[in-house]
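From the pipeline queue, job 12 of 40. The input is one protein chain; the requested action is below.

Action: predict structure.
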Amino acid sequence: MASRARRSWSNAAASLAVMVRPVDGAEELAGLLADRRLNAVRAGPGLGAARSTRALVEVALCGDRAVVLDADALTSFADDPAALVSAISAQAGRPVVLTPASRGIR
């Protein structure tokens, strides 16, 4: 799971069976995901619903790894859900899982 550096410890404590790597920004995430051994990424919890989160999601969706989009990763596209659909569709064939909270669906 990629997590903002300031939240990496709380995410790691809540996700004991998941490797958490601190990243701050899309460029840093792209560098991390250049490691072909990392075949899945989860984005969303604690990122905040901001443009910077959208950039992280777009980086996560590049390539052929599995992607789980949760919480803020989805909310960051609330004003333009078609952009999220387009980003997911651009790399068809790789698994993408969306896990919205019921209160986040509008």
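Job complete. The helical segments are 8-14, 26-33, 51-61, 72-75, 81-89.
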